[in-house]
Known about the structure:
The chain is α/β, with parallel strands linked by helices.
Amino acid sequence: MRLNEVVYTDAHPIEGYGAEFFRIGGTKHTAPLVTGPDGTKSWAGYEDADTLLAFEGKVDVLFIGTGGDIAHIPAALRDVLESRGIGVEVMNSPAACRTYNVLLSEGRRVALALLPVGAGA
């Protein structure tokens, strides 16, 4: 089996996480946050649609990590994102990180919004 080094060109992968943080591109960031082709920044959570709408035209899929457990996002948030051409996939934050990293390594146009995983993760 041949192994190839993965090179990320547009964004940084998620390297790890803890109770209230995610390590991205060698830097520890406090959650909640968003990351994608424009870098990593704070996110105010589900009420902050504007931060997520900034991905319009830049990504095909936005993964939303709902914390340690999977949960529904507000229907209004999903509706506004999808009406602007941003596909939405919801899963718990650890699964969202893994999925984001895989698709990012394939050169896909993806972004990630993460809520903290909580204590004991």
